[in-house]
């Protein structure tokens, strides 16, 4: 059986909630929101290889960038798709 690579998925934009999947079970992952603000959170991966983390308030009209640093090494990045908001 081939292990799937770790991934980050956007759950909601406001508040900014991200789901991690396929990480090594029972390890720690440092999750950093780089944009639109900066916040770092240390989360523990569950037995199923996943976690859910709420970052800063977020904004439905702002693009977000989130990076996860697993304790085993590597880097996983999520760049949210461009928002569908009217131009100012």
Low-confidence stretches: none
Mean pLDDT: 88
CATH topology tier name: Immunoglobulin-like
Helical segment tally? 0
Strand residues, percent:
35-45%
Q: How are the strands ordered across the major sheet?
A: 4-3-6-7
- Reported CATH architecture: Sandwich
Number of strands: 7
For this entry, what is the oligomeric state of its chains? single chain
What is the end-to-end distance?
Answer: 50 Å
Structural class: mainly beta
> Biggest sheet, in brief?
4 strands, antiparallel
The CATH top-level class label? Mainly Beta
Helix content: under 10%
Shape, principal axes of CA atoms: elongated
Number of domains: 1
Question: Order of SSEs, N→C?
Answer: EEEEEEE
Outline the secondary-structure elements.
Elements: E1 7-12, E2 17-21, E3 28-35, E4 39-44, E5 51-54, E6 65-70, E7 76-79
Antiparallel strand pairs: 1-2, 2-5, 3-4, 3-6, 6-7
Describe this structure in words.
There is one protein chain. The strands form 2 sheets. This protein has a 4-stranded antiparallel β-sheet, with no helix packed on it. The protein has a 3-stranded antiparallel β-sheet with strand order 1-2-5, with no helix packed on it. With 88 residues, it is mostly beta strands. It has a single domain, classed as Immunoglobulin-like, CATH 2.60.40.
């Amino acid at each position: 059986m081939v292990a799937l690579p770790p991934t980050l998925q956007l759950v909601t934009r406001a508040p900014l909630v991200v789901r991690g999947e396929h990480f090594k079970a029972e390890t720690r992952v440092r999750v950093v929101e780089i944009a639109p603000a900066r916040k770092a959170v240390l989360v523990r991966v569950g037995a199923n290889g996943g976690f859910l983390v709420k970052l800063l308030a977020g904004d439905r009209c702002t693009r977000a960038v989130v990076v996860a640093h697993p304790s085993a090494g590597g880097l996983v990045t999520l760049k949210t798709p461009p928002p569908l908001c009217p131009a100012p």
